[in-house]
Structures are given as structure tokens and as C-alpha cells.
Description:
Structural class: alpha/beta
Shape: globular
CATH superfamily: NAD(P)-binding Rossmann-like Domain
Number of strands: 8
Radius of gyration: 17 Å
Order of helices and strands: EHEHEHEHEHEEHHEHH
Strand order of the largest sheet: 3-2-1-4-5-6
Number of domains: 1
Number of helices: 9
Amino acid sequence: MGRLDGKVIVLSAGAQGIGRAAAIAFAKEGAQVTATDINAEKLKELDGLPGIKTKVVDVTKKDQVEALAKEFDRVDVLLNVAGFVHHGSILDCKEEDWDFTMNINIRSMYLMIRAFLPKMLAKKSGNIINIASVVSSIKGVANRFVYGTSKAAVIGLTKSIAADFLQQGIRCNCVCPGTVDTPSLRERIQAQPDPGQALKDFMARQKTGRLCTAEEVAYLCVYLASDEVSVFILKGVW
């Protein structure tokens, strides 16, 4: 038996990186997973894997999120992964950069939780996991102004939902990874004027001497999605 047998899980950004790794890890533990993303081609790579269904959804669009939620009578776990990393200080952040980042990194979570939380409350049971970052209220990092601001908001959102709904059977947690080796990171490194130096700069910040893998984050998400964590969370939130 798997640790997530019988659980119904919906997640965003499932086409690659943390979302993809989590979808696969959840399914291997017995969950029925619906992985969403806007990248239809990459999302197709999950089609046919046991326990995983895919659906193209833009989680920044209220109508698409609400339509997705209507397809489910029950959802046990909601994993919000969708995010964007903007490079620069406040002086490099135009209004459209601010709006774009906030729309993906925090408003998408608001929309998803608003749509799925009532289904969890009806069952008096549910589990929400949000992907934040150490670059947030935990730590400031140069040239991550709006990204760090948005991820600090994710931590605040998570704590607020935990405080409001824990006694109604809802667990809400966030994961705050360091630098994760994902296709997105590699694309951002290659986009720099000197990719080799950019990679060295990323590595210099890693206390372990290596990058975190998407699979390592996924394993933590499996733990948080499981019933093993319930007592810990009662202690951890308060």
C-alpha cells in the first residue's frame, strides 16, 4: 500500500520541475493526480503514467480555475506550484513586472484555494501545500525584489489559512526550498550574459555544495500530503 492510497490530488505547474516531480511521486504512492499547466506539449509527457491525468489550465484565470474545481466532488490535497522568478531590484521592476509576478506567484494560489477549499470544508478534511521559497520573509537575496516579496506573501497566505481553518479539518503548509535544479533555473542561467559565471554564482550560495533537486522537494510534499504529518502540524502552526 502507498502512503497516499485513495487520495485525490490537484496540482499546478505539473509540466516540469517541482510540479512534475510531485505529480509522479504522488502517483507512485497511490494517489489519483490531476496535473495542470499552461504548457500543453510538456504536460503531455505525463499522459499515460499510472495515476496521473493532465489538464491544460491557466491558474491565473478565474474562470478556468473555477471550471476545473467543478470537475471534482472531492479533493484531498491541493498543491500550488506555479511561479515565476523575476531578476532585478525595485528599480528594475516595472509595474507590468510587478503585476505579472504577483499574478502568477500569489494570486493563482488565492484563486485555487478559493475554488477548492469549500470542497474540503464540506468533507471536514483537506490539505493545502504551497510552494514558497527561502527568498521571502525568511531571507533577502540580491536582485530578487518582486520574487521575494511574492514568496513572503505566500508564507503569510499559508499561515492565515492555517489559522482560520485548522479546527475545521484543513491543514495548510508551505515549502520553502533553496535553489532547485529545474528547467526554469537552467533557462534563466542561459539567459544571462555569462552563463558560466551565473552558474558559479548560484553554486556559491549553496551551503551543501550542490543544487537541490525537484525530486527532493517532491518527497517533502509527499510527506506533507500524507496522514503521517497531522499531529506535527497541530504543534507546528501554533
